[in-house]
Amino acid sequence: MKIYFLFATLLFRLYTPKYNFDYPDVRRDENQVEDYHGTLVKDPYRWLENLDSSETKKFVAAQNALTMPYLRECPHRDGIRQSVTSLTNYTKFGSMKKKGNRYFFKQSNGLQNQMSLFIQESLNGEPRLLLDPNKLSPDGTTTIVDFNPSEDGKLLAYKLSEKGSDWVRLYFMNVETEEKFTDKMNETKFTRADWTHDNGGVFYSKYFIIKKNTENLTDTESEETWKQQLYYHRLGTNQDEDILVVEFPDNPKWSCNGEVSHDGKYLMVYAEDELGPVLIHYINLVEFLKILQPMPTMIPIVENFEAEYYVRNDFKS
Fold it and tell me: pLDDT tens, 177-202?
């Protein structure tokens, strides 16, 4: 997207013929008003954020019909395309994650739409392709948002997004055999996926969703999200069997996530509102995994964030 924007900007700067632009009409929704602490703010084009609506698609098609003939006539187009392609055609790497004796990382050959997921058995080992998202959709818009190996590096949880959406679906894989499990977690975004150290399952966060006449979750703004909850998913089970671990019904706008401690004995629970963190609690995982009872007891660590603190070091900086 950034490359396309740069490409289009260069074209307009270099090529400015006389052109009569008949811009398409765009509807203003005067009834779309938000109340921000007593100040009413109009947002008449909010409807354009619903990328899946027929009205938005019609408007985008009209915009393209106006723009593309102009771009096609530009005499500098091929030269700029070749230059931008040359500048971006190099191998790119993401950060490594080490679990067990294995190293996991994302890599692109330079011109791929999306980065693929690779694994190495050692730092000097030969990279092995685990997952290529470029083969998952015809238009190349499915991407690996994040990936979470189990503590021993034998299993993998990975999140896929479609068409740039914040919504992700959570999937699972056996790293050694590359077998994909049938488990699939929907209605998730802004979530971790932390494994229990017995490889029995993961903790992840899911939203309660109010649907607004859409058939899928490819657009974040076409769904109203509410009441994020933390669940435990046992590998090999259906999502509707997942165990509710944490929720805050009195604060439906809070988000929450869980992080398994390094020793695997505790689950750290973090809750945030629109302004930042509001509490940190923990759960005894040893006891929870014995009985798998919903809503286990949380023990508070921090319950009131009165300030935000930073630790800084100016030594030899």
Answer: 999 999 999 989 999 999 999 999 99
For the entire predicted model, the pTM comes to 0.77
DSSP letter string, the chain = -HHHHHHHHHHHHH--------PPP----TT-EEEETTEEEE-TTGGGG-TTSHHHHHHHHHHHHHHHHHHHT-TTHHHHHHHHHHHH-S-EE---EEETTEEEEEEE-SS-SSPEEEEESSTTSPPEEEE-GGGSSTTS-EEEEEEEE-TTSSEEEEEEEETT-S-EEEEEEETTT-PBPS--EEEE-S--EEEPTTSSEEEEEEEEEEE-S-SSSS-GGGEEEEEEEEEEEETTS-GGGPEEEE--TT-TT-EEEEEE-TTSSEEEEEEEETTEEEEEEEEEHHHHHHH--SSPPPEEEE------------TT-
**Residue 19: CB atoms within 10 Å:** 10
Cα–Cα distance measured from residue 41 to residue 51, given in angstroms and rounded to the nearest whole number: 22
The C-alpha angle with vertex 267 and arms to 236 and 203, in degrees rounded to 5, equals 30
Contact 289, 245 (CB under 8 A): no
Q: What is the pLDDT of residues 42-95, one digit of tens each?
A: 999 999 999 889 999 999 999 999 999 888 888 898 999 999 999 999 999 999
Between CA 261 and CA 299 the distance in angstroms is 15
